[in-house]
Specification:
about 240 residues; two-stranded antiparallel ribbon; 10 helices
């Protein structure tokens, strides 16, 4: 990436943004997790472009989770955590990827079920549901915000023994409630100011939003879950068969 290297004819015809991105990709391949990147000023000099062109490429890599801010500089980030789309809990998925899972309790209250929640849980509107909101952690880093809704008449006993910083999936199974299936929808969104503050990011960062409705082996709905994940910290994987 020397500033003294002459550009080939092909390189000269490339859009500057594409050329900068290509050179940054090559630089990242030579660095390890935690290694610092040169400053935007130095990168601009090396690539022979304006700092705004470099800044755009850096923003793209930040959104993709390839790099991250550290103090006033930028360093190489660790690979995204890959979470399998299965019936298993977040805890099991994080452990499988070699990360230490954790949770921080934001809210645990009983509220009347709105029409959509009531329909998903096969309840009459207004039936009390438990709303459990938690921040999901991986190695102490905030990567997701999860809101779970469960029927109070069936799961009120959780308040007697459940620690909300542990796996809810394991707790419900200990009650003899087994998961049989789930319907999940994934879409991309931007976080609200409150959500961004809880996840310690900006509202401009793309998020992955998951909606899940889980059914037990008895055919009765167990939960309705809304999970918001930082797009720069996690990816999802599904194994498909015909």
């Amino acid at each position: 990436m020397s500033s003294e290297r002459a550009l080939s004819a092909a390189e000269a015809r490339m859009p500057k943004s594409y050329r900068v991105r290509t050179e940054l990709e090559a630089l990242l391949a030579e660095l390890n997790e935690g290694d610092p990147l040169p400053s935007e000023r130095d990168l601009a000099l090396r690539c022979g472009v304006a700092r705004e062109t470099v800044r755009q490429a850096v923003r793209e890599l930040l959104v993709e989770g390839r790099i991250r801010r550290q103090g006033r500089g930028t360093v190489v980030s660790r690979p995204k955590m890959v979470q399998p789309l299965t019936l298993r809990s977040y805890t099991e998925g994080a452990l499988k990827f070699g990360r230490t899972p954790g949770r921080l309790l934001v809210d645990w209250t009983d509220i009347p079920a709105d029409p959509d929640t009531a329909a998903d849980l096969a309840l009459a509107p207004g039936t009390p549901v438990m709303h459990l909101e938690r921040i999901l952690l991986a190695d102490g880093e905030r990567i997701g915000l999860e809101s779970t809704f469960m029927p109070v008449p069936r799961f009120a006993i959780l308040r007697d023994f459940y620690n909300p910083e542990t796996s809810l999936y394991a707790a419900t199974r200990s009650m003899g409630v087994d998961y049989a299936s789930a319907t999940e929808r994934i879409e991309t969104v931007l976080a609200s100011p409150r959500e961004a503050a809880l996840l310690e990011c900006t509202t401009a960062l793309p998020m992955l939003l998951l909606h899940r409705r889980s059914i037990g082996t008895d055919g009765i709905p167990i939960e309705r879950v809304r999970s918001l994940y930082r797009g720069d910290r996690i990816a999802f994987q599904a194994n498909l068969t015909d």
